[in-house]
Specification:
This protein is α/β, with parallel strands linked by helices. It contains eight helices and five strands; from the N terminus they run E-E-H-E-H-H-E-H-E-H-H-H-H. The N and C termini lie far apart (about 70 Å).
Length: about 230
């Protein structure tokens, strides 16, 4: 069985609001909290408790990689590439030469995703605004469902989810509004966007303009305006 030093996962691929956040957790599995698991299988309070324990442990190193809404909306990007970018940024904070990382695959091809992450770290994140001279040589394995099968990746999924949630909470505070979860399927999120467009005539900066949800909200507002006219 391969021994990994780092687990990596991301949160926030699908939301219409806020950034995507990846986390890299470098640790011995024996030093992880006993209740570490895939973040989707844990309550909010348990996730926050685990994330706090990981951050407070001297035996655990944590790296974060954030991809902004502007980067997500850039026409030359795609979600697979953005997931690579997020993971490379997170790994850049903690990876050392010779480390072996297990990452949650963000591509239908696990091997292709692993290669892209490995090359990104070796390049020092040069394609993600990093320093091309600071790259390290690591081994990367990508697996679908790694957050369920690996406690290291599970720990990363918890840190990423808690960080992403904290950023959504900060956005809600900034706009002094209940914005919901940020996902397109959330009626509260859709209502927030519709109300904001009704009041200001445009989408908030926290929205991913390229998402179809935003296009729908703008189209509905335009149609409403035409009907009133």
């Amino acid at each position: 069985m391969t021994e990994y030093q780092i687990g990596v996962d991301e949160a926030g691929k699908g939301p219409v609001l806020g950034p995507m956040v990846a986390a890299a957790v470098r640790a011995d599995e024996d030093d992880l909290p006993a209740d570490v698991a895939d973040s989707k299988d844990l309550t909010e309070s348990t996730r926050e408790s685990i994330a706090a324990a990981l951050r407070e442990s001297a035996a655990v190193d944590i790296g974060l990689g954030v991809v902004t809404t502007d980067e997500i909306d850039a026409p030359e990007t795609d979600m697979n590439g953005l997931t690579v970018t997020a993971q490379v940024r997170a790994l850049g904070d903690v990876a050392g030469d010779g480390d072996r990382a297990l990452v949650d695959a963000g591509d239908v091809s696990e091997s292709r995703f692993a290669r892209r992450v490995r090359e990104g770290v070796a390049d020092g994140g040069a394609e993600t605004d990093g320093d091309s001279e600071s790259g390290v040589a690591i081994d990367v394995t990508a697996e679908h469902g790694a957050d369920e099968s690996s406690r290291l990746v599970g720990a990363a999924s918890v840190v990423a989810k808690v960080e992403r949630d904290s950023r959504i909470a900060a956005i809600a505070e900034e706009y002094d509004s209940d914005i919901g979860s940020g996902y397109p399927s959330d009626p509260t999120t859709r209502d927030f966007l519709a109300d904001y467009v009704d009041e200001y005539g445009d989408l908030p900066d926290c929205a991913r303009r390229s998402w179809s949800t935003c296009e729908d909200v703008l189209s509905a507002a335009e149609q409403s305006g035409l009907e009133e006219f």
